[in-house]
Amino acid sequence: MVTAEQVSKKLKAHTETVAPGLPFHLNSTHQAGDGVWQGDLGIEVVSQIPNDYILVVKPTDADRQLVPESGQGSHHRLRSLEGVKLYRPAKWGESDTDLRGPCIVFDRPGAIVHDPGHDKPHGTVFIDDPMTVLCRYQRNLDAETKQERRSHD
Questions:
Q1: What burial class does residue 121 get, using C-beta atoms within 10 Å of its C-beta: 0-12 exposed, 13-18 middle, 19+ buried?
Q2: How far apart are CA 34 and CA 30, in angstroms?
Q3: Residue 18: other Cβ atoms inside 10 A
Q4: pLDDT on residue 14
Q5: Closest to 38 in 3D by CA, of 121, 149, 128, 133
Q6: How far apart are the C-alpha atoms of 43 and 114, rounded to whole Å?
Q7: What backbone torsions phi and psi does residue 42 show, to the nearest 5 degrees?
Q8: Which of these, 48, 78, 44, lies nearest to 60 by C-alpha position?
Q9: Under 8 Å CB-to-CB from 95, ≥6 apart: which residues?
């Protein structure tokens, strides 16, 4: 049997990923610094909202999107806006080199889904208990320019 401590150590090392099509649960056994990767979207438990993040006032359905663009591969979304407060970096979406994503305060259970119909389906990340999570994007190094850019799965 795997203990909560063993799971926590794996998550802190960021070696845990959501298996294709299988769910993953973040719950009260997870502490700040624990996290999981849903494809190219990193989801990390944090103890507070970063200082330079701004509350999204009156979020709409479009705000469920957790990556700035809506093109192919950008299918990571909040299942619902109910019971969440959404924060973003001040200049969110203005640069391909900014690897910071939204910060989400879950007041009740929720989920981050990867919409079906994508050629690389990722399992749903369930937020089982109230917590705050910070999204991050994976780096992708272009062979010619060696510039950091967000990976687009």
A1: middle
A2: 6
A3: 21
A4: 46
A5: 121
A6: 13
A7: -90, 135
A8: 78
A9: none
DSSP-H helix ranges across the chain = 4-12
Alpha-carbon gap, residue 49 to 124, rounded angstroms: 23
Q: What is the pLDDT of residue 58?
A: 96
Within 8 A by CB and 6+ apart from 16, the residues are: 7, 10, 24, 35, 36, 37
Please give the structure tokens belonging to residue 46: 């944090």
- Rounded Cα–Cα distance for residues 41 and 34 (Å): 14
pLDDT digits (tens, 9 = 90+) for 56-88: 999 999 999 998 765 554 578 999 999 999 999
Nearest to 126 by CA among 145, 141, 113, 107: 113
| φ and ψ at residue 62, rounded to 5 degrees | -65, -25
Share of the chain above pLDDT 70, in %: 69
| Tens digit of each residue's pLDDT (9 = 90 or more) over 104-144 | 999 999 999 987 655 667 889 999 999 999 999 886 655 44
- Residue bearing tokens 């997870």: 30
